[in-house]
Amino acid sequence: MGFLDALFGRTTPPKADLEVLFSVPQAALSLEVQGFSFTGGGAVCYRDTEGAADDAVIAEVKQVVAIDGDVTLDKTQDDYGFTWISIERADGDASAIAADLHAVNSSLADHGFDTALLCSTFVFEHDGRPVGLVYLFKRGTFYPFVPAGGQRRDNALELQMRGIVEGDVPIESDLTRWLAIWGAPGLA
């Protein structure tokens, strides 16, 4: 940060710590012991710019991710204008999804989208309902998100998930930052 930035109160957004994504497979094991199952799905959310600047990145990611098997990769936009790149692995391998999401995030960051990255999700199931473990790029922390139908959340289950994974991944301590991500792939 330069002198003028400090003088005018501007801050530089922190760089995302993408390596922390590799701690999710351990969290998946902890959740599995408590009755949660990993679905084999995950997604990256970012704010897209005008034009087709990310098309080359998506093509690159498709080549990298699709190399090792039965993988589905989709690009969608939610009702709020955010772009989601979702990945689904038929084998349900949490380590492979962590590597896939790392590859997507790294490619986007390498192509200038690093400040546009918002979150990554890992999708689980509990009692037949989708639940998510969300990574916030700007904070470097995770939080659980449990939709309960409509625009409602199951806060009790979110707190239970926090207790299960807090030894495996860095958890967001500010509950006001546990944002609802309505319309996220796999969690709708």
Question: How would you summarize the topology of this molecule?
Answer:
Layout: H1 3-8, H2 24-33, E1 37-46, H3 55-65, E2 71-77, E3 83-89, H4 94-113, E4 117-126, E5 129-136, E6 141-145, H5 155-165
Antiparallel strand pairs: 1-3, 1-4, 2-3, 4-5, 5-6
Helix pairs in contact: 3-4
Features:
6 strands; Alpha-Beta Plaits; PspAB-like; 188 residues; 6-stranded antiparallel β-sheet; 25% strand
Helix/strand order? HHEHEEHEEEH
Q: Briefly note the structural class of the backbone.
A: alpha+beta
**End-to-end CA span:** 39 Å
Mean pLDDT, to the nearest integer, reads 88
Total number of beta strands: 6
Description:
The chain has helices spanning 3-8, 24-33, 55-65, 94-113, 155-165, and strands at residues 37-46, 71-77, 83-89, 117-126, 129-136, 141-145. The longest helix is centred in the middle third of the chain and has 20 residues, at 94-113. Strands 2-3-1-4-5-6 form a six-stranded antiparallel beta sheet. It is 31% helix and 25% strand. It has 188 residues and is α+β, with helices and mostly antiparallel strands. The protein has one domain: Alpha-Beta Plaits, CATH 3.30.70.1710. Helix 3 (55-65) runs antiparallel to helix 4 (94-113).
What's this entry about, in short?
With 188 residues, the chain is of the alpha+beta class. The protein has helices spanning 3-8, 24-33, 55-65, 94-113, 155-165, and strands at 37-46, 71-77, 83-89, 117-126, 129-136, 141-145.
